[in-house]
Specification:
about 350 residues; alpha+beta; five-stranded mixed sheet; 13 helices
């Protein structure tokens, strides 16, 4: 694709975004505008770091070709509105460390023998050891750029002698992972268990694993979760749906569901995010947004609650969920995707 074509497409997209954001309600339905902008943002969020920087430059160049005035000012906001000016890789590394420290605080003050309802047969000590192992396994992969799978049992873990030291061990592992990932090129190739075989996969993967297990620990100790950032939870739902077909323990049961054409819709009240899943073809496809066929089953809750539903930490009967349509397909999906 020529530079001229790229520039023209970027200018057209920036102009369209600005028109949508500044349209009056009688010209464009606000809900339609939000859905379109969110879907576009989700698509752009999947770009590599290099492509994000390139698109940011193209958007800025398009804006600066306009004469000074309100239109130029609006065009200059497009990159920031889609998060192109930030560094999502570094932000995810920081968030891993933040969530690990929160988990360590829960573990440090609790009985290590406390059962963890979200992980049957696990105690709080088992959960802490698992998360600390994940951090060290991911740090090894990011640091060595392994092109093939590496088992956690083949990575030096240096576990503490007893559960009393697990909290500090957790934080140390998270610090090592975050440092290795920050120093790495996010676009560098490395084996991954999911859809994206690049370093950039790991901060998000480790963050969402830590986030869900933090919720496990909080539910085990306090009976409720702490605050779940809505945007992070929505990104975690994206990650789960993207990687699910690559996880044999999920993909194989889904291939046997036999509900071709069934449409499931998840709606986040707090972020407005919508995920539409279509079963069939021995698996499923999904999109952001509510376009297409009417859902067979739909569920609405906050993004964090939907994330914990997908991970079976909340039951579908919990009062935080509002259901419409036939519950059967949703229950079948949840049973098939249980880890």
């Amino acid at each position: 694709m020529s530079e001229a074509l790229l520039s023209a497409l970027a200018e057209a997209l920036a102009g369209l975004v600005t028109a949508v954001e500044t349209s009056d309600e009688d010209v464009l339905d606000p809900d339609t505008a939000v859905t379109w902008l969110e879907s576009t943002g989700h698509t752009l969020a999947g770009l590599t770091a290099t492509d994000r920087r390139t698109l940011d430059g193209l958007f800025r160049a398009a804006a600066l070709r306009e004469p000074e005035g309100p239109r130029r000012d609006e065009l200059l906001k497009v990159s920031e509105g889609f998060g192109l000016t930030g560094d999502p890789h570094a932000a995810a590394c920081d968030a891993v460390l933040d969530h690990a420290r929160r988990l360590a605080a829960v573990v440090r003050d609790a009985d290590p023998a406390t059962p963890v309802p979200g992980c049957p047969d696990w105690t709080l000590a088992d959960l802490a050891r698992h998360v600390g192992t994940v951090h060290r396994w991911a740090e090894h992969l990011v640091r060595t750029r392994s092109a093939t799978r590496v088992l956690a049992e083949d990575v030096p873990l240096d576990p503490p002698a007893g559960p009393a030291a697990y909290a500090d061990w957790l934080v140390t592992g998270a610090e090592r992972f975050a440092a290795a990932a920050r120093d790495a090129d996010p676009d560098a190739p490395v084996w991954s268990p999911g859809a994206d075989p690049h370093v950039r996969h790991y901060p998000r993967h480790v963050l969402f694993e830590t986030l869900v297990h933090l919720a496990d620990a909080e539910l085990a100790v306090d009976g409720k979760t702490g605050p779940l950032d809505p945007a992070t939870a929505a990104d975690a739902v994206d990650h789960f749906l993207t990687d699910a077909p690559y996880i044999a323990r999920i993909a194989e049961p889904l291939s046997r569901l036999g509900r071709d054409g069934t449409v499931l819709r998840l709606t986040a009240r707090d972020t407005g995010a919508v995920w539409t899943l279509t079963l069939g073809g021995g698996g499923f496809t999904w999109t952001r947004g509510s376009g297409g066929a009417e859902p067979t089953a739909a569920v609405e809750a906050d993004a964090g609650e939907l994330l914990l539903l997908l991970h079976r930490r909340y039951g579908a009967d919990d009062p935080c969920f509002a259901h419409t349509g036939d519950r059967g397909p949703l229950d079948d999906w949840l049973a098939a995707t249980a880890l």
